[in-house]
Amino acid sequence: MRLQLDFKSGTPVYLQLVDQIRHAAASGGLRTGEPLPGIRPLAEELRVNRNTVAKAYAELESQGVIETLPGKGCFLKAVGSPLTKSARNDLLIQEIDRAIVAAHHLQISEADLLALLKKRLEAFARQHSAAHD
Asked: Cα separations (Å) of 38 from 9, 70, 82?
């Protein structure tokens, strides 16, 4: 799992961490029971205050995404995780909405956007197929 922060985005850093960890968990980039990086090492790697990482982890724990095992660290929660199909759909809807807004700002028509989406899906399928051959 690779986390990247955008300090100019206007989104608080801890929420960027929350979103990226939720996305990694929903997409399978982070597996159930897999440990998250420790607070101190992650803060050093990302060059942020430890409290920022701790706040992100606390938010994820309050959402039921991770659990903290004293003396062992934070882990993706195995039972009762909210990252169900509907939660994954919600994450995808957010990404689609961003693409729609970007298309609107770039003055791309609905038909052109749908054609581009179809083209990108076909390219992905070809790449995925080639990688598994």
From this structure: 25, 12, 22
Each residue of 50-79: pLDDT tens digit?
Answer: 999 999 999 999 888 899 888 899 998 865
Contact 36, 77 (CB under 8 A): no
Can you give the pTM of this predicted structure? 0.62
Determine the Cα–Cα distance for residues 7 and 3; give it in Å rounded to an integer.
Answer: 13
Contacts of 20 (CB under 8 A, 6+ apart): 1, 3, 4
Rounded CA gap, 19 and 9, in Å?
13
SS3 call for 35: strand
* Short-list 85, 74, 65, CA closest to 39: 74
CATH 3.40.50.300 fits 13-76, yes or no: no
Q: What are the pLDDT digits (tens) for 79-97?
A: 555 556 666 777 788 889 9
